[in-house]
Design brief:
- With 117 residues, the chain is of the alpha+beta class.
- It is built from six helices and three strands; from the N terminus they run ααβααββαα.
- The chain has a single domain, classed as Orthogonal Bundle (Arc Repressor Mutant, subunit A), CATH 1.10.10.10.
- It has a three-stranded antiparallel β-sheet with strand order 1-3-2.
- Helix 2 packs across helix 5 and helix 3 crosses helix 6.
- The longest helix has 14 residues.
- It is globular and about 40 Å long.
- The model has no long low-confidence stretch (mean pLDDT 92).
Length: 117
């Protein structure tokens, strides 16, 4: 994969995309419903940002029934993975990133049960 630095850092520059990427870095794979819950935003808003991340090749998605799950792109270059990992480690205890993870843990009906209803 040939990810260019400009779109990668443009993605990180938007607070909502950065928060979503930090959750994906820490959790691995999340359903859109989990992201909307954790980030406190509407489904159309997070879906628009996830679509941008997918176009840039930073995340990939998969469908399972009615649900759409996102994860970091498997082919993401090592330099980009290192940036995300270091950023996640550095901001893990800071707000809003710690708050996002805490909100995620309080979500009832997480995937495996009927989410996104």
């Amino acid at each position: 994969m040939n990810l260019e630095a400009d779109p990668f850092f443009t993605a990180l520059a938007h607070p909502l995309r950065l928060r979503a990427l930090m959750l994906l870095e820490q959790e691995g794979e999340l359903c859109v419903c989990e992201l909307t819950h954790a980030l406190g935003v509407s489904q159309p808003m997070i879906s628009r940002h996830l679509a941008q991340l997918r176009q840039w090749g930073i995340v990939s998605d998969r469908r399972q029934g009615l649900w759409v799950y996102y994860r970091l792109q498997d082919a993401l270059p090592e330099w980009a993975r290192q940036v995300l990992a270091a950023t996640a480690l550095g901001v893990a205890a800071q707000s809003p990133y710690a708050d996002d993870r805490a909100a995620l843990t309080t979500m009832v009906n997480r995937p495996g049960a009927a989410c996104c209803a």
